[in-house]
Amino acid sequence: MKLDVESLRALRAVVQTGTFTEAGVQLGMTQSAISWKIKRLEERVGMDLVKRGSEIEATPDGRDLLQYGNRMLEAHDEAVAHLSRSDLEGVIRLGTNEDLRGGALADVLARFGRMYSQVRLQVRVELSGIVREWLDDGAVDIAVVQIEASDVRPDDVVLWTEQLAWVHSDEHIFPIADPVPVVSFGPGLVYLETAEESLKRSGATWRTVLECPMLSGVQAAVEAGLGIAALNPRNITERMVTWEHNSKTPLPELSEVIRTGPGGDAEAQTALLEALTTALVEQRT
User: Fold this and answer.
1) CATH superfamily entry for domain 165-251
2) Theoretical Cys-Cys bridge with 90: which of 5, 82, 246, 265, CB 3.0 to 4.6 Å?
């Protein structure tokens, strides 16, 4: 019996995400390619490794295999990083928001650090509006930020684009005739003015009941029923529903982009940009 490393990687991604489609997005592959890898792996080991349904989960045999597979993947990736290490030197200052899910950014930065051990990374996390100010002021060299899709520049690397929506707890109702309580990320949110304008155009009145710069805090407040919030689909939880007045208060599309500044070490910056682009750009099929 021979175990293919990339098939094990596909199995891990499927179990982590619960779907072939999301696993494909994570690995930059098509849904059919992921499904084929899992099927071939099951044929090789002679047992079912996942339970297929609305949400895919590992079988007991699949969980057993992943206990070994995770160690194999870790050793494989460390070996590749060691053999691929570079003598490149320099300093890179990276600014980012916290909207990259599943530790994706931490993973790519860790791999980059192993491959370019002599490059010093300095990472700062804040709301996108603040990170953009850092980039404009030369305080960071590369920024991973959210912007309105209409503001994407030709040299931006677009990771994903999604339509914003007003959402609230599935256990609470917020009529538009009453002052609407709003949960906000506060100053530094790139679409704060646009969100407020959308409420004005609908004729609604509102009051801000909570400001929190952290996604987890905003999600918790919305789930608890404190008010409505403008979120993109990937940050809408199972306990949230879209506000019934969304059509009266349209919100813009939002893009997550990698944007570079004029300063920094050019070679080191190019290497990080390539690593971020390869790992984070979502391949839609």
Assistant:
1) Periplasmic binding protein-like II (3.40.190.10)
2) 265
Q: E strand or H helix at 159, and its extent?
A: strand 157-163
Q: What is the pLDDT of residues 63-100, one digit of tens each?
A: 999 999 999 998 888 787 766 666 788 889 999 987 66
Neighbours of 42 (CB within 10 A): 19
Span between the terminal Cα atoms of the chain, in Å:
33
| Burial grade of 93 (CB within 10 A; 0-12, 13-18, 19 or more) | buried
What architecture (CATH level 2) is domain 5-83? Orthogonal Bundle (1.10)
| pTM of the shown model | 0.69
What confidence category does residue 164 fall into, taking pLDDT thresholds of 50, 70 and 90?
very high
Kindly tell me if the per-residue pLDDT of 283 is higher than 70.
no
Using alpha carbons only, give the angle 24, 30, 34 rounded to the nearest 5 degrees: 60
CA separation for the pair 58, 69 (Å, rounded): 13
Q: Quote the tokens at residue 37.
A: 């890898």
pLDDT for position 80: 76
Q: Where are the alpha helices (DSSP H) in 122-258?
A: 128-137, 192-202, 215-224
d(CA 150, CA 248): 20
Does residue 266 sit in helix, strand or coil?
helix
